[in-house]
């Protein structure tokens, strides 16, 4: 009697291979950008081969897009897990600003991937349906937070949630993205524990002054 080969182990193997490829690709793209990244190095580090990469992701450009989508999905998913609804509006906003800062510190690849995509004028994100879905979540999150703050009498009315999102991201992104040049220009190490704590305190104070009555 001939028995058929089980499909589930094959599916698990395929999934594991794709995860290894994506992890290796994330490091390679973050280090060298899309143009400088080498598919053969990604394959080597993923313990796969180039044929497998093109089988699963079709092209280097498509693989880069998938890495970007996963990077944005990861940060948006982590934001949703903050459970800000259980906090008053001020505490919730404080938590969000701290989270964004700490996420950037813990995930420097996210910043470099964003930089790389901006060099390409976001042509990969333009083709992504995933990005639109996950990005709307954070706008809704901040919009609801602001509305709650107004109802509590803590925040001013009429604050644009998109503009606030941009500002929260920018005050952390700019500092960390320019930490090397900034350390020279301002003649201080911007990455010491004390410097980072001082910056976080300043970020929170800045955002609170923008939104509070």
3D architecture notes:
This protein is an all-alpha fold. It has ten helices and no strands. It has two domains: 58 residues, Homeodomain-like (Arc Repressor Mutant, subunit A, Orthogonal Bundle), CATH 1.10.10; 145 residues, Tetracycline Repressor, domain 2. It is globular, with a radius of gyration of 21 Å. Pfam families: TetR_C_29 (PF17938), TetR_N (PF00440). It comes from Kaistia terrae.
Helix/strand layout:
Blueprint: H1 8-36, H2 39-45, H3 50-57, H4 60-80, H5 89-106, H6 108-119, H7 129-151, H8 161-177, H9 179-185, H10 193-211
Helix pairs in contact: 1-2, 1-4, 1-6, 4-7, 5-6, 5-7, 5-8, 5-10, 7-8, 8-10
CATH architecture of the largest domain: Orthogonal Bundle
Helix content: over 70%
What is the general shape?
Answer: globular
CATH superfamily label of the largest domain: Tetracycline Repressor, domain 2
Pfam families: TetR_C_29, TetR_N
Domain HTH tetR-type: 15-75
DNA-binding region: 38-57
Protein name: TetR/AcrR family transcriptional regulator
């Amino acid at each position: 009697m001939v028995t058929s080969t089980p499909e589930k182990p094959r599916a698990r193997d395929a999934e594991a291979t794709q995860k290894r490829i994506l992890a290796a690709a994330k490091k390679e793209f973050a280090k060298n950008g899309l143009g400088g990244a080498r598919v053969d190095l990604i394959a080597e580090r993923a313990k796969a081969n180039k044929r497998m990469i093109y089988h699963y992701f079709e092209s280097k450009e498509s693989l880069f897009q998938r890495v970007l989508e996963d990077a944005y999905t990861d940060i948006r998913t982590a934001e949703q897990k903050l459970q800000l609804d259980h906090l008053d509006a001020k505490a919730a906003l404080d938590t969000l600003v701290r989270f964004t800062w700490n996420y950037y510190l813990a995930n420097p690849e996210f910043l470099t991937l964003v930089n790389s995509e901006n060099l390409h004028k976001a042509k990969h994100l333009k083709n992504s349906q995933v990005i639109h879905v996950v990005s709307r979540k954070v706008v809704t999150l901040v919009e609801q937070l602001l509305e709650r703050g107004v109802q509590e009498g803590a925040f001013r009315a009429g604050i644009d949630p998109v503009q606030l999102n941009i500002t929260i991201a920018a005050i952390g992104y700019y500092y960390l993205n320019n930490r090397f040049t900034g350390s020279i220009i301002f003649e201080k190490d911007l990455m010491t524990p004390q410097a980072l704590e001082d910056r976080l305190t300043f970020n929170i104070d800045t955002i609170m002054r923008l939104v509070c009555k």
